[in-house]
Design brief:
The protein has 16 helices and 4 strands. It is mainly α.
Length: 439
């Protein structure tokens, strides 16, 4: 009989706390960056947009570098900690200002994010080996990230308003520093697992007893499973990120945003999703922790498929709500209730797909390859985000919002159906993982 895993409070885990702190500073800084470049740095709107896009898009490239280093002898803890120091250095560079220093600061920041992000995911996977706890931990991680995404811009914006953006960047460096002080010790603690022997995890050792430690290879079946998950992840990100582009544009043009004598900015629509994540995240984390064995039968494939279907349903609601708009440029309006319902469905789909897919990829990864595969997984989201922006740019050519949103919804439903048909292979792969780990 295997010893039972010693449970800890996931919410107060040093790794989860570090994630919330890092994202707090990250999203706060990002909310000011493009305006800072255009005003303080005297760049044109086009130049500022190009630098901002390159800065954001490069995260998914540097994540691959972070994954390779995380799987090296240095390990995920050391690599992630160095990443946080680089992020702190980037904050200081932005405070110093000047064109050359600012560009160098952004490069260093980008490298730091890439070193930290995939190894953060690995740290969660290494600490929680039991699938139910791991699913719950990734949901908690996702919620904590959204807490930072919601509060960071508010604090940074307030500081910038009372002083200036550079002071806000400097004070923002406190958050990656605090994240380092939380993450570094947490990745050095001894981890008690549900395997037949205890494993000591240190920042300098990057291996864990997981499947066959002699081969460290993925079977062909698992490659297929991860490939299918990757394609679904691209579709998910390409559609979900429309909340920040096409849906915001829809709100700007066709939603009555007046509250008394005040008109709400269209960008406020982007705050609805993180609000729902913060509200629902703890409930989903609790449900994942106490659900029946997550790896059995069609459990995880069913959860991921349902997440894609619900995301598509959210966009389907918007497609129906905007059907009264004959052509882009009409003056018909869409009610706020439809926007809220759509984003609610999309958020539920997000909570079912995003954290569980991260947990599943981590669980399928062989020893010595977890950080690399988590970096690749982050890159798939980057591809999806790029496609999302490209799709939004071609929105005008569709003629109607309804058609555009309907195509987005259909893409999710097709991806969900593909995932559903892959349930049998997914179940077989997970059962193979269990059987190998028991020997």
């Amino acid at each position: 009989m295997q010893p039972k895993m010693k449970e800890s409070n996931i919410w107060t885990s040093g790794i989860i706390v570090a994630a919330a702190l890092q994202r707090f500073g990250h999203y706060g800084m990002r909310s000011l960056l493009i305006v800072y470049l255009a005003t303080d740095m005297k760049m044109s709107g086009q130049q500022a947009g190009q630098i901002y896009g390159l800065f954001y898009g490069s995260f998914f490239v540097t994540s691959l570098i972070g994954g390779v280093l995380g799987d090296s002898r240095r390990g995920y803890g050391w690599t992630g900690s160095v990443g946080l120091i680089c992020i702190l250095t980037g904050h200081v560079g932005l405070w110093l200002g000047g064109p050359a220093i600012t560009m160098c600061a952004l490069v260093i920041y980008t490298i730091g994010f890439g070193l930290f992000d995939p190894n953060l995911s690995v740290a969660v996977a290494r600490r929680y080996h039991d699938e139910r706890l791991r699913d719950s931990a990734y949901t908690v991680l996702y919620t904590s990230i959204n807490i930072g995404a919601t509060l960071g811009p508010l604090l940074f914006g307030y500081i910038a308003l009372r002083t200036n953006a550079r002071v806000s960047f400097l004070i923002g460096g406190l958050w990656p520093l605090l994240a380092f002080l939380s993450f570094n010790p947490a990745t050095k603690k001894r981890i008690v697992t549900n395997s037949s022997q205890d494993i000591k995890e240190t920042a300098g050792v990057g291996s864990v007893l997981h499947a066959n430690t002699k081969t460290g290879k993925l079977s062909g079946r698992r490659w297929i499973i991860i490939g299918i998950l990757g394609l679904a992840g691209i579709v998910f990100a390409a559609v979900f990120d429309q909340l920040g582009s096409s849906v915001t544009l829809l709100a700007n043009r066709y939603v009555h945003r007046g509250v008394g004598s005040f008109t709400l900015p269209a960008g406020y629509v982007q705050s609805i999703n993180p609000f729902f994540v913060i509200l629902l995240g703890p409930l989903f984390a609790l449900a994942m922790k106490h659900k029946q064995s997550s790896g059995e039968a069609s459990g995880k494939a069913g959860i991921l498929s349902l997440g894609m279907i619900l995301l598509g349903s959210g966009f389907g609601v918007l497609a129906l709500a905007s059907s009264g708009i004959g052509h882009i440029g009409d003056h018909n309006t869409v009610k706020w209730t439809w926007i809220f319902l759509s984003i609610f469905l999309a958020t539920v789909g997000e909570l079912l797909f995003a954290p569980i897919s991260f947990s599943l990829v981590a669980g399928l990864s062989p020893p010595g390859r977890q950080a690399v595969l988590m970096g690749v997984w982050s890159a798939t989201y980057g591809i999806g985000a790029y496609l999302s922006g490209t799709m939004a740019g071609f929105m005008e050519t569709f003629g109607t919002f309804s058609l555009f949103l309907g195509i987005s919804a259909s893409a999710c439903w097709v991806a969900g159906a593909v995932l559903w048909t892959a349930t049998r292979a997914l179940h077989t792969g997970l059962e193979g993982t269990k059987q190998t780990a028991q020997h």
